[in-house]
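User: My collaborator sent over this chain with a note saying "see what the structure looks like." That's all I know about it. Can you take a look?
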Amino acid sequence: MSILDTPSPFYTPEKTSNWSLAVRYGLIWAATGFILTLVGFLTDTDASMPTTPTSLKIAYSILSLGVAIWCIRTAIITDRDEQLGGLIEFGRATGLGIKTGLVTGVVGAVLQVIYTKVINSSYTETMLDATREQMEKQGLSDDQIDQAIKYSEMFMGPMPTTIMFILVALFFALIISLIAAAILKKSPYPA
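Assistant: Without extra context I'll predict from the sequence alone. Here is the result:
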């Protein structure tokens, strides 16, 4: 075992990058989300479709949230224990979680575009048809439905999808990171 295999006893976060952890756990988070999307597609239980039962949507959401929490928590613990000798400050832990969310958002957005354009090319049409059906059940007029569908189409393009994916991932990463950082921080400086 060489000296390079053991973590440094000196607390030097400014010299230790944690981007590799953000990429690793961001990719795990994005890949798991994509796998859940594929499972929904193959089993006709896509959580984004209005026709999917609420209980299944809740199950998908809980599973997705659990993966997000695990990825951010594990990234912070790995950074703290393996790279920083057991110490990590609140800001660095939060930053790592946000970086992880950024990676997830970017990769997830690319995977979502691939999903909607290649794997399930009828996704947008199916979604709009299901939305139209729901609005008809609510008793909206044809003009109101057409107007709503027109706006929905604008937000289903690749660029709005990419922006929304990144923003949603960053939002959840921020919330999870703040909580995880508060729990997992170990400051080298006395409080």
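A starting point for your reply to your collaborator: The helical segments are 19-42, 54-83, 90-119, 123-137, 142-154, 158-184.
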